[in-house]
Structures are given as C-alpha cells and as structure tokens.
TrEMBL record:
Pathway: Protein modification; lipoprotein biosynthesis (diacylglyceryl transfer). Keywords: Cell membrane, Lipoprotein, Membrane, Transferase, Transmembrane, Transmembrane helix. It is a multi-pass membrane protein. GO terms for cellular component: plasma membrane. One of its GO terms (biological process) is lipoprotein biosynthetic process. It comes from Tropicimonas sediminicola. Its EC number is 2.5.1.145. This is Phosphatidylglycerol--prolipoprotein diacylglyceryl transferase. A 1,2-diacyl-sn-glycero-3-phospho-(1'-sn-glycerol) binds at residue 135. GO terms for molecular function: phosphatidylglycerol-prolipoprotein diacylglyceryl transferase activity. Its main location: membrane. Catalyzes the transfer of the diacylglyceryl group from phosphatidylglycerol to the sulfhydryl group of the N-terminal cysteine of a prolipoprotein, the first step in the formation of mature lipoproteins.
Length: 313
C-alpha cells in the first residue's frame, strides 16, 4: 500500500488545517467532556472544568514542543534557535505531552487544594484517548514510521526505502485497547489511591515498548531509539507504583463540594482558542528537518548496495 495521504484537511484564507493538529483539538475536547461529566465526582465547578482544560491544553502544547526540541531535534534547533517559535512548521513529542499534562494537573490540584493523586487517576482516562487519536494523526502525517516489512499491510513512503510497518496504527489500537481497561479500573478503584494512574503508566509505556520494536526511530540515545529509553523508565516506574498502590490500604478521598460557579466569557474564549490553535500544526517532526533526514537516509540506502557490488568485484 502507498502512503499518499494529504496531511491537510483543507486550506483556508488564514492557512491550512492539518489532520495531525486536529487530533490535539479532538483530544482537548475529550478532556473537557470527561471532566464535565465527572465534575460532580471530583468536586469541580463548571468554571473549574474550563480552568483545568485550559491549563492542561497549555501544558500539553508547551511540553510536547519543548521536549521535541530538547530531546529529538536539538541539533536542528541549535543552528536556528528562533525557528523554535515556528509552531506551524511542526514538532511535537508524545513523552513531552505526557510531562506537560502531568505538570499542568499538579498546578491545578495545588491551586484548587485538590488531591493530586485523585486528579491523576481521573485524567488518565481522557489522556489515553488523546494519545490514541494522536497516533491516528501521526499515521496520516507520516511522521512516525515502522521498520521495513514484507507483510501485506506494509506502507510504502515516497521518501523512504521499502515497505514499512504502520506502527502508528499499532500504537493507536494499543491506546484504544487501554481505554476501556482504565474506565473499568476507575470504577473498581475510585480516584485517590493512585491505582488508575499507575496502571495507565505501566500499560501505556510497557505496551508501547513492545510496539516500538517495529518502529524506525529517526533519533537514537544510548544505542536504542530515544523514545524507547523513556518507555522503559516509565514502564518500570509504573509497575513499581502499581504494586505499591494495590498493596496500600489507603482509601479513596471524598472531594470537596464547592459552591456552583459558572465559567467567565474569558474562559470560554480562551478554551475555544486553545482547541483551534493546534489545527495549524502539520507534523510531529519539524518538516524541514525530517525531509533532510529522510533524504540523507534514502541516499545512503541507494549508495550502500552499489558499494557492496564494487567491493565484491
């Protein structure tokens, strides 16, 4: 199969709307809707739901961008640091998305005097949904690619040698599989013990490590794909936390019941702006950088067989 998807949904007078960016918008809506439905269980007002979604969205966007620049594309941005501001050129990292969401959740919990563990248990469900739809965006934009394969479902990319595993689809399916598990877990272990958050970390990272064995990482660290290092660390941490939380006798905490409070017009406008903001992000890698990397890899793949023939001759 040929990977020839148009990364743009449509082109408007103010710029293109991209599939990759759209999945962040869908994910942010998922965060909002989950907490809107669960606001009573978490002791949140209507205004709180808007505030949390705003803070979480900002954390995801900033975390994903900064992590990508510092970990995956530092060489590229070291030569042109001002390009870091060009969000419309692409460049987001899923581990940074997780870190940014964690920091945002911690800030919100502290501001509202809520249990951080309970908030992390709660946010795990919509977070895995965001990550699941995010990988669908990765597949369409072609930024996350698999290793070469002879399987009939392999995809051929115009700038890469050989058919590739659709590893982004594998991971999207994995995340969608985790989603009902976390929904069941949140009913069995109500937020506050840390079981759901620990289960999320362990399942997400552990299964991702297995899925990423079929991935062709275009950045490496410590001799393996950069993301695999973080997958291993997260999986181990998640397993340790899961064992500890399951053994802990700690009971779930009842959240406070605040007086009703409606969101302000400013909150509504800011949230709408943040949901629309990602639509202009085209790719998970900066487009100019990934094009340069793949052109170099393609040239090497074409030269090596010729060198081998000359050597044998």
């Amino acid at each position: 199969m040929i990977h020839d998807f148009d990364p743009a949904i449509a082109v408007t007078p103010v710029g293109a709307i991209y599939w990759y960016g759209a999945v962040y918008s869908i994910g942010f809506l998922g965060i909002f809707l989950w907490f809107w439905i669960r606001r009573g269980a978490r002791g949140l007002t209507n205004a709180d739901v808007f505030s949390f979604t705003i803070l979480f969205s900002i954390g995801v966007m900033v975390g994903g961008r900064v992590f990508d620049i510092l970990v995956y594309e530092l060489d590229y941005y070291r030569e042109q640091p001002l390009a870091a501001l060009n969000w419309w050129e692409g460049g987001m990292a899923s581990h940074g998305v997780l870190l940014g969401g964690l920091i945002a959740t911690a800030i919100f919990a502290r501001m509202r005097g809520l249990s951080l563990i309970a908030m992390l248990d709660e946010v795990a469900v919509p977070a895995v949904f965001l990550l699941a739809v995010g990988r669908l965006g990765n597949f369409i934009e072609g930024g996350v690619i698999g290793s070469t394969t002879s399987m009939p479902w392999g995809f051929v990319y115009p700038d890469l040698e050989g058919a590739r595993h659709p590893v982004a689809l594998y991971e999207s399916a994995k995340n969608f599989l985790i989603l009902p598990i976390l929904v069941l877990a949140i009913w069995k272990w109500p937020p506050g013990r840390g079981v759901v958050a620990s289960l999320f970390i362990f399942l997400y990272a552990g299964l991702r490590f297995l899925v990423d064995l079929f991935r062709d990482y275009e950045a490496a660290w410590l001799g393996i794909g950069t993301g695999q290092v973080f997958n291993l660390l997260m999986a181990v941490a998640g397993l340790i936390l899961l064992i500890r939380t399951l053994r802990s006798p700690r009971q779930s905490e009842s959240p406070p019941q605040p007086a009703p409070k409606s969101p302000s017009w400013l909150q509504i406008v800011v949230l709408i702006a943040l949901i629309l903001y990602p639509l202009g992000i085209p790719t998970s890698w900066t487009r100019a950088n990934i094009t340069e990397k793949r052109q170099g890899s393609l040239e090497e793949a074409r030269i090596e067989p010729r060198l081998g023939t000359l050597y044998r001759g």
